[in-house]
Fold these 3 entries.
Entry 1:
Amino acid sequence: MHPLLTSGARRVVGHRGNRAHAPENTIASFDEAVALGVDALELDVRLSRDGDVVVMHDPTVDRTTNGSGAIAQMTWRELAPLDAGHRFSPDGGRTQPWRGRGVGIPRLADVLAHFPSTPLLIEIKVPEASAPLRRVIEEAGAEDRCIVESFHHAAKAPFAGSRIAVGASRRDLVRLLPRALGRDARDAAPFSFMAIPTSYFGLPLPVGGFVAATVTAGAPVHVWTINDPGEAEALWRVGVTGIISDDPAVMLPLRARGAAA
């Protein structure tokens, strides 16, 4: 079973890999997170103009690479040469230690091949990427180690009948909110897990309430993006299963401490 589907455990997920220390959503960043010992990698996917499932958070390549343009309007041949480490800086822009080191934008197929056993949490940024994403996962035989999620409810439909676990959409969360506020448990849910922030548009979310509302449905709650150890400890105490962090090295000792307690 995918480790993020196991309730009652402390899990640490590398948000876009080891984002605090390496260029996000790259093989280099994922390598660092895996070497640290994360339970899973979190990443984002979009679709290139010619139908490749590419790993990228933003709709354009401008923020993270030396290129410019919308991913949906670029072919894989145009995306592949870009330097995905060009703009990364650990010190507010004073240095760019990854620039020119050959770090590229990966396709999901590349990630699955490079990490043949690592569990993944995949956020679908655009619904049109869902059907190609399912094909890539199934062709790699990676159904049992991938969980997919999206804010877009329509992104869930192409996974009907598959063995790939699907997370809660924004619509699912809104519908569950009254139960979460009342800590009213439900016996079943139209999703396998949920990943939520602690607040949404400045309004705090009842994280403990979501845990209480989904515990009998067997749908663990994971929270992003947590980089403060004290906040992580508080979330684990209310029953959160996974902490999705930019800096997993800070969280992993807390996970080990909880397991030993």
Entry 2:
Amino acid sequence: MLHNINPPYLIKKIYSQFKWDTSNNKVLLTFDDGPNPGTTEKILLALNEFNIRALFFCVGTNVERYNSLTNQIIDEGHVVGNHTINHKLLIKLNEKDALREIKSFNSLMLENFNYIVRYFRPPFGWFKFNTGKMMQKTGLTCVMWNLVTYDYHANLEKVKRIVDNYLQSNSIIVLHDSNKTTDIIVDSIKYIVDKAGKHNFEFGAPEECLN
């Protein structure tokens, strides 16, 4: 499980085909597990306030359940990424079933939203040696991170400490669009924005950050 705040250099080297840092020296915000009523709306309002475009790694079952929120994410200029159809651990699935989890999400987005998905993040950050091969088969780019906030612990002070210690100009930051983060997500975003501003770090759109 790769829930290191900033994964080890050796892991990044071995899986160099994955995206661990932004390519343009700008900060990228990413949100996992949504869409989620009561949280997604708060995130979108905050992003609009700060004029930031983000990458939402959505779960297919949530997309189906809350299609209007998915439309809102897209309509407001953000990017939807693949977090599988059912949020299953890929390491517990054979390649055929893992590919079905990934491809089903892509088909859902294309059929229901006329949307072509470009980016993937494995649920819980777990992946196997064959994940890179599956990315080739599905035409996706696997996007990991160099700063996971642990915001799902619902502890804003912990989020602040992590951001203080790990924020870089090329950070790919993981936040969560879930019930666990509802009470702290806006303050977490605002703190990251404030901290980035103090360091003169800029935020980038997903497409430019992941070239």
Entry 3:
Amino acid sequence: MSDQEQTYEGGCTCRAVRYRMVSRPLFVHCCHCTWCQRETGASFALNAMIEADRVELLAGEPEMVITPSNSGKGQKIARCPTCRVALWSNYAGAGDRFRFVRVGTLDEPSRLPPDVHIFTASKQPWVVIPEGVPAFEIFYKREEIWPAESLARRQAVIGS
């Protein structure tokens, strides 16, 4: 099955907002930073980074909520206006060209396990990272671990 033939559907708890990712994401981050822990109320955030134009709304319209971020540039979080579930984020560094879809909002979240664990220096000590999955105390160099196809897709969006 080609990248373009893979789709992933998801939405909020009350089902007022539904979306479809029309291809595999560029990369799936499991972030253990304290900001993500606070924002999610959990031990980490699991985000599928994908081009914004590859996320189609099927129902409803999320509300964009601006929240602080560790970078100081803030982030926009797309939330259901009814049940308030966070569906994806747009970080200032990536702008509106990319979405960081919350994997837990997918109908089948098990289809997108993490490609990398980041900010493990602040992970909860009882979280065990599986063997063979790249993990970094802070961040990583994209060119060293992303597949060539994902790097090319990213470059096509941001230009030179």
